[in-house]
Each structure stands twice: as C-alpha cells, then as structure tokens.
Amino acid sequence: MRLSGEIADQNQPVFSGSGLNKSFQELEAPSSFLSPWTTMNDVQEVTSPATSLTGPATCVTKVELRVSCKALLDRDTLNKSDPCVVLMVQNNGQWVELDRTEVIKSNLHPVFGKVFCLDYYFEEVQKLRFEVYDIHGTHSIGTRDDDFLGGMECTLGQIVAQKKMVKPLLLKYGKYAGKSTITVHAEEISGNNGYVELSFCAKKLDDKDLFSKSDPFLEIFRINDDGTEQLVHRTEVIKNNLNPVWEPFKVSLMSLCSCNEERKLKCLVWDYDSRGKHDFIGEFFATFREMQKISSGNKVLWDCMNPKYKQKKRNYKNSGVVILTDLKLHRVYSFLDYIMGGCQIHFTVAIDFTASNGDPRNSCSLHYINPYQPNEYLKALIAVGEICQDYDSDKRFSALGFGARIPPNYEVSHDFAINFNPDDDECEGIQGVVEAYQNCLPKIQLYGPTNVSPIINRLAKVAAGDGNIKDASRYHILLILTDGVVTDMADTREAIVRASYQPLSIIIVGVGNADFTDMQILDGDDGVLRSPKGEPVLRDIVQFVPFRDFKTVSVFSPSVTCSLSIHFSTSWHLTALKQLNRIFFLMQYPQLV
C-alpha cells in the first residue's frame, strides 16, 4: 500500500472545542428497553469523508474505525463523566461533524461500540479530528452543562498505517488533558467480505438486582491472533427482564471474525448499572462456524457461565442460556461479480443541440468539427464511451439528441435519434456514435430550450421493462452532454426521482465555460435530491461533472484502472442483484470525484 503525502504533524494541534455547537437528540427506542448507549442522530449530513475531502483520488477502500479512551478527566461532582466521541472531517478548511459514538454513562475508560465507516483514498490526505465530551442529558454540545474532555487530530492514512493509534488527548491551546488517551483501531474492509445479521435472546439469566430483575445487555468480542480482544458489538439494555430478546444487528465479517470462521468470539452478559458498575452475569465462547449451524435447522445456544460460581458451587449448571435465533448472511457483490455473472451494461448518450452551443460552422462553436482535433463534446463522449463499451456485450450504443429542430418538418425535439432512425437508435460502437454525430450536425438547426426530462423519462421506461426480467441482468447508463443549465429543472427532478427506482444511473457532463452551479442540485452529493413535491430519490443515481476541470486527465493511467474494485451497493428491485449506487463513470475516473 502506498501512502502519499501522509506526514505526521509534529506541532501540537490547538483545540477550541467550539466546533460542535449542535444539539444531541436521542434516537427513539422501543419502550421495552432502555439503551444507555443511545446513538445520536447526525447533525450535519455528510455523504462520506471521501466526498467531503477535496483533492485528486485514485484507489479507494472501506475502513472501519473503533474508538476507546483511558483515564478521562472526571468533570462530575457525584458521578463520573458520561463520555461521547465526535468524529470531525476537514472540508474545504472547515471542520464538519461526520458522526458520533453513543454516550457511555459514568465511565472514565470507555470502549465505544459505535463503528465509524469511512472511504479511504490512498493518495489523499484526509484530516480527522476526534473530540471527547462529557454529556449531560440531551443538551447541546457547547453549552455550560457539557465539558470538553480533550481532542486529537490525525490523518486517516496515519491510522490505517499503524492499525492501532494511541494518542494523548489535548485541551484548548494544546494543554494535555491529564493522562487521558484515545485509541483508534482501523480495519480495512475488502470488497467481497459481506456482512451478517445476527439476532440473540437469552433465557433464565441470573437475577442480580435486589428489588427488581436484571437489566441485561450482551457484548461480543473478537479474540485476535495476539490474544487481545476487540469489541465487535454491544447490544441495547433490556430493562427488568431475565429472558431478554435483543434487537437484530449487522456486522461485517471482517469485524466479526476477520473472515476466519474458526476465530474465537468471547461473549459477555452484564446487568446494567447506571453508575457504570455493571454486574457480571456470565460468559461463553463461540465461533462463526458454530453460528452457521442454525441455517441447517439446528438449535444454536450456549450456556452462560460465571467462572466464580462454577468454582464455588458444586451443583452449578449455568447462569442462563443465550440463544442465536436468526442469522442472515449477506454477500457484498463487486462490480466484476455482476459483469462475470452475466449482467449487461447498456450505454446511452444524449447530446445537447441547443443554440447556446453556437453555430457549428463557426470555429467558436462547441459543436465545431475541427479536422485536426475533436471538440469537447467528442472528447467527453470518447472518454466515457471507451470505458463503458468494454462492458457492453453487443457494443451497440443508443445515441439521442435534444434541443434542435429536426427534419423533415424542422420542429423542435427533445428526444430524437441522431441517426434519424426512430425504430433503431443504436450505433455500432463509439465510432458509430461519433459518425452519427458528425453526420447529424449539418441536417439539424440548433434551437432550445435545454430540456432533459423527456430523455430521462424515456430511458427510465426502458429500464423499467428490463427490471421485470426475472434474472435482473441489465443495467443502463445515461450520459448527458450539455453546455448549459437545465431549463426544465422541476420536471428533471421529478424524472430523476422516478428513475431512481429503476436499474439506471445518469452522468451529466457540463461542456464549455457556462456557470454550472445550479447543476449541483441534481447531484446528490450536497444533500438528498427531492422532487418538487418533496419526494426523495430512492438512491443517488446522478453525477454531474464539469468537463473543463478535467481536460488534462490521463484516462489510461494505472491509477484509473486500479479502481475496478467497485461495488453495487443497494437493491434496485426485488431480486438479489444490486444497483450502481455510485456512478460507473466516476468509478472508472476517480479523479473526477
């Protein structure tokens, strides 16, 4: 692995503790249980640190971060601090909150169950800040009721390189927070590990309370090769119940067992105490291989044992039984899995023929055909098309145009085949699209406006038909080349929301020097795109790219081809196949992120 530009900062960072004047709001939990580690809602929505941090990126991998602290300052008079860690990322020189851990009550040595999942770009300096706060109730961070316990700055590359980073916590102006330290563990999650969903319950647990029943919760630790233990998951607390049924949870196979089915897992059951002095009920050891026996109809359960009771009590049997009630194994498929499994990519290009491009006979026009070099439309078309055609089985691409008056009646059309064959708009390969484009220009009259919703609706309808195929083996990519801001913005937003339910992704490439600021609305990176009526997209299917920013990118560089290890991320209909969540073009061209 090559880490470029990751140089440890020798200077002590200065913390103001003021970057988080945002409110905590506990997630609503079922009334049957109380979770003292309630995960807080994100205050500011950030897609990922990869999209938040600027700069060129090449290869990307998923990284999971786990956090623990030791010897935190005790700010409370009667009890110990109730710590929470806030993860910040640097975005354009500003610190933005990415996520928060749960709040652990009355604990100066917390081990947090929250897992931070980040995109790690090997050659990008991704600055992170971890800030620890003593939280009182649900008040907002930054008020006088909350105390800043210290912070630490580093880069994601430094954490990944060390795998386990231990650093002192610093207060404002670089002052050490006593002997407080923070530990961050990093694990890279490879593309085809998948994840597992587990459901546990327990029966007849020991009663540790005098006037009520135990308040049990379960912790699962992975035992590493060096004998150390890594917290994998901590369940919620079930109040006053000796037969708890815990909520199902998901965890990656890398996190659970390092993809080793025989790796030992240590499981502990505790009786929760609000002062942090939890009573030990019992423990048991398991492996993922044992857990998988449930799939064959076998009952999977373990005796929850208290070693002290076993040693002292002659007739001691157990302190209860823990039962695995359900196991669902989900494989995370890579892009190549789908291609090799027969999924076909169908490529469609839509070209803007509005008058704002200029007269094609004029050398200043964006559509001017220069005999010595291609215009920007052709450059963008070739750059994207040559990548996509490798995954298109028949190498036939649909080529459409919009915004022009077309023969024979020269009426304005926002959805026409540039080969003027409405029954068959496909061209033979990228070269066929180029030839159709060049032959089309002299026959049409550039007009307007820039309406793209008709073509999006048309392709969504085609994709919907393909979506009814039982094996779900066809995926569509629509490349829209345009020189200006979309005129029918409301209709386009509506069309994109409808299309987000289909096996379709849209790449919009802005050609020329127009102001494309408004086009970022269609790209979901700055927030969830919604229809005019407020309906959100099912998934992010649009990526907007101003071509002028990337004219000099080498499309055949090794750093581009290494990014083939990409993923389909969410289901695009009711079959097992999953859709392209991040646009295929930018998976191949990570420089354009």
What does this structure look like?
- With 593 residues, the chain is of the alpha+beta class.
- 16% of the residues lie in helices and 31% in strands.
- The chain has 12 helices and 28 strands.
- The protein has helices at residues 49-52, 156-162, 253-257, 288-291, 307-312, 335-340, 376-388, 429-440, 453-467, 489-499, 558-561, 584-588; strands at residues 60-70, 83-91, 94-100, 111-121, 127-134, 147-155, 164-170, 176-189, 195-203, 216-223, 229-234, 249-252, 265-271, 279-286, 300-303, 321-330, 344-352, 396-402, 404-406, 411-413, 416-417, 426-428, 445-446, 474-482, 504-510, 542-546, 570-571, 578-579.
- The strands form 7 sheets. Strands 17, 18, 21, 22, 24, 25 and 26 form a 7-stranded mixed sheet that branches.
- A hairpin with a 2-residue loop joins strand 2 and strand 3 (94-100).
- Helix 9 runs parallel beside helix 10.
- The longest helix is centred in the last third of the chain and has 15 residues, at 453-467.
- The protein is elongated.
- Mean pLDDT is 79; it is low at 1-58 and 552-593.
